[in-house]
Every structure is written in structure tokens, then in C-alpha cells.
Amino acid sequence: MKVMVLSGSSRPNSNTRGLAKEVCAHLEQQKVDVLFFDVGINELPIYKGGEDMEHPEVKRLQRYAEEADAFFVCTPEYHSGMSGALKNALDFLHGDHFRGKPVMIAAVGGGGKGGINALNNLRTVLRGVYALVLSDQYVTDMSCYNDRCELVHDDSRTRLKEMVCELLRVTKALKQS
After folding, report:
1. What is the pLDDT of residue 142?
2. Is residue 156 part of a domain?
3. Contact criterion met (CB below 8 Å) for 39 and 70
4. Backbone angles phi, psi at 103, to 5 degrees
5. How far apart are CA 45 and CA 37, in angstroms?
6. 134 within domain boundaries
């Protein structure tokens, strides 16, 4: 089984990246092949279509999405929505990448507030490309991370592990049907 983990923050020191790496660690513990794409590292052009579709990072993004059996998408909340960098990445994908594949979503809010609006925004966009967005979702804030952007809050780590297990359970069930 392959799960694409998409980290949606373009910031170099990002709690969203820390969250995504924690997701990857849980997946690897379950012996799952992880396809990690980080919009802050794998720099994409601004979506215009046309020749941008030949950009090496666009091709990597699309290849990962094609190979994935499921997705775990992480975003920061910026001005009550997902990050622009994540939306740009999603614009390079389409229904064939997501159709029939479960997606778990998670957000990092700032300063003890936020996250839910970004997830509502993300859920709407993912439904627009026919993703099977799971009803469960995950929100943390800055207080759950240390200065190295590592998720250190025990209850949050436990909850995240449960969500990874749920994504895998649903993915296995869909593959068997």
C-alpha cells in the first residue's frame, strides 16, 4: 500500500512539515510505502496549465498522486483557509488522481486558534476533485510543537496515530471491495 503525504506549508521552519513527518513515521511503522511531497521543498510553479505541466516537480507530484492508494494532506491555516501553496499544488491534480481514494486531512492553527476553517476549505476543494475525504479530521496549534517543529504533545500524537490507523483501515477495505 502507498500513501501520499502532502505537506502544504512553504515556510522553512513549519509545524505543518513537522506534522507531516510525524504522519510519515506512523505510516512507516505500519510498513506502508510513503510518498512524501512538501510544497516548501518541492517547489512548484504558479499554476497556469500549458508548459507548467512539464515542470519536473509537477511531474513528481502527479506521479505520486497516481501511485497513491490514499492521501494524508496537512495544511497550515492562513487567513481562515488552506495555504495558497497547497491550493496551487492541488490545482495541478484532477479527479483521476483522487477518485476512489480515501483522504485524511489535518491542519495546524496559530496561537491557540484556527485550523477548522482551513479544513473546511480543503475539504471543499478535495470534493471538487472527487476525493473520498474521510469525516474525521485533525487540528493542532503551535503549543503542540517544540522549537524544532516536532509534535510533542502526547494526546495529539496518540490522536494522530489513531487517524493514520483509520486511514489505513478504510484504504484496505476499499481495496478489498
Report:
1. 86
2. yes
3. no
4. -130, 130
5. 15
6. yes
